[in-house]
Design brief:
This protein is mainly α and 277 residues long. The chain has a single domain, classed as MetI-like (MetI-like fold), CATH 1.10.3720.10. It has helices at residues 3-12, 14-31, 33-36, 68-104, 106-120, 124-135, 139-165, 169-176, 181-189, 194-217, 229-235, 245-272. Helix 4 packs parallel to helix 12. The longest helix has 37 residues, at 68-104. The termini are close together.
Length: 277
């Protein structure tokens, strides 16, 4: 499917279009967070603590007088980088493991898939909590933990796609003419497995942002005081009645970002679904 046709089909899906616009919005503010920010995200204005949204502080201030709009903007950049890093680490490793498992088959395939099945029996958040205690508390540890927890899903999906594609005639022809296994896998099999991997990657970005924010809320992610949405929510717990805006804006940012990626992922899945054609 060429790019232009793909975009046209995606735009026909109203929910996917809405999701794409939400994702685009957060991408723009992540890129432009520095010029858009009015203040330094760590700058404290102790004479303006817990102020409501106003002309000076558009989204108000937090318990230390820090500008919430600035911190939400910087948090967008952090959250999107987190999502991309999780895909880069967990997705890449998962695709590699799934490809080897599906292509080689036999006892190696059975052993790898039983390990993946065992890991997938646990919820992703629980696995992330386990891994972050092993790797270490902090934003880097949270990213690696969520990436490792996401790896089995990429492995299983890739393995299933490889099993389907490796039986095609053009793969058998590549074997007949003597091409190496690596070349067959990289040139003929994996490119034809990209559609479901792209869909899973899009959905995983939103889920990763949500889980890392949850770890930050629990004090296991970004360091306290950082301009990260989960940490901002954690700091706002004591002011839900007196200053609800402190929790509302980072909470809405998390919800919208996750919603945007989920809608976009569903739309991409519908475009690639042969039953929709």
């Amino acid at each position: 499917m060429n790019t232009l046709r793909f975009v046209r089909k995606l735009l026909r899906n109203k929910l996917a279009t809405i999701g794409g616009l939400i994702v685009l919005f957060f991408l723009v503010i992540a890129v432009l967070s520095s010029p858009l920010a009015q203040y330094d995200p760590m700058e404290q204005h102790l004479d303006a603590v817990l102020q409501k949204p106003s002309g000076q502080y558009w989204l108000g201030t937090d318990e230390l007088g820090r500008d919430i709009m600035t911190r939400v903007l910087c948090g967008a950049r952090t959250s999107l980088i987190i999502g991309l890093l999780v895909i880069l680490i967990g997705g890449t490793l998962g695709v590699m493991i799934g490809s080897i498992s599906g292509y080689c088959g036999g006892l190696l395939d059975v052993a790898i898939m039983r390990i993946m099945d065992t890991v997938m029996a646990f919820p992703t958040l629980l696995l992330s909590l386990l891994f972050v205690t092993i790797i270490g508390i902090g934003l880097e540890g949270a990213v690696f933990s969520v990436a490792l927890a996401s790896l089995p899903r990429f492995a299983r999906l890739t393995r299933g796609s490889v099993l389907s594609v490796k039986e095609k005639e053009y793969v058998e022809a590549a074997h007949v003419i003597g091409q190496s296994h690596i070349k067959i896998l990289m040139k003929h099999i994996l490119p034809n497995c990209l559609a479901p991997i792209i869909v899973l990657s899009t959905l995983t970005i939103g889920n990763s942002i949500l889980i890392v924010s949850g770890l930050g809320f629990l004090g296991l992610g970004a360091k306290p005081g950082a301009a990260e949405w989960g940490v901002m929510l954690s700091n706002a717990r004591g002011f839900l009645r007196s200053a609800p805006h402190v929790a509302m804006f980072p909470g809405v940012a998390i919800a919208l970002t996750v919603l945007g990626f989920n809608l976009l992922g569903d739309g991409i899945r519908d475009v690639f679904d042969v039953r929709q054609k």
